[in-house]
Design a protein that fits this description.
There is one protein chain. This protein is 61% helix and 0% strand. With 176 residues, the protein is an all-alpha fold. The chain has two domains: 35 residues, no CATH class; 134 residues, no CATH class. Helix 1 packs across helix 2. The protein starts with a helix and ends in a 19-residue tail after the last helix.
Length: 176
């Protein structure tokens, strides 16, 4: 049951006006039946690819979070703005998305996913005799580093995170 609650909320938060928590739960339930994860355990490659690609996608997200908080945001947090959907909030950016973060996820995600899939594909096709599939084991670290660096670069080139206070108290993350 605990593994059901989080995906239900995740799907619901994609579009709260259109997707209720119950509908989000149904999407998660149907998706899990379609994906049939219980069949993955009969194939070693399927589990390896699944975990490799999952890590390759989570790594860039972590790198962007670290870059956003430490390098770009200078460890400043506008707590009130984190919980608002108003376009005037510090974290609204462009229609609620930071284009620099989206570009960073796309670039670093593609590269880190390629590090999982391409070495095995080249080996299986006979294009190479060198077994470089070990590279995929580091897809999370590769994605994390690339996500951090690309986001930092895009924010330096075209900043979206505004560090100027609007007369609002800034929190450094410490509890009072």
């Amino acid at each position: 049951m605990a593994n059901f609650i989080s995906p239900a909320f995740d799907f619901s938060n994609v579009s709260p006006q259109k997707i209720s928590w119950r509908m989000g739960g149904m999407i998660a339930a149907v998706g899990s039946v379609i994906l049939t994860p219980w069949n993955w355990y009969s194939n070693d490659d399927a589990i390896h690819y699944t975990l490799g690609v999952l890590g390759a996608l989570i790594g860039p997200l972590f790198g962007i979070l670290i870059a956003g908080y430490y390098l770009v945001g200078k460890q400043k947090v506008w707590v009130e703005d984190m919980y608002t959907m108003k376009p005037s909030g510090k974290y609204w950016f462009r229609n609620g998305y930071n284009p620099n973060a989206v570009k960073s996820v796309a670039i670093s995600g593609v590269v880190s996913i390629a590090s999982v899939l391409i070495p095995k594909a080249l080996l299986d096709s006979g294009a190479t005799t060198v077994n470089a599939t070990w590279i995929g084991n580091y897809s999370w670290f590769l994605g994390c580093a690339l996500g951090l660096l690309t986001f930092w670069y895009f924010e330096k080139r075209s900043p979206m995170i505004n560090l100027e206070p609007n007369g609002v108290e800034v929190n450094d993350g410490a509890l009072a």
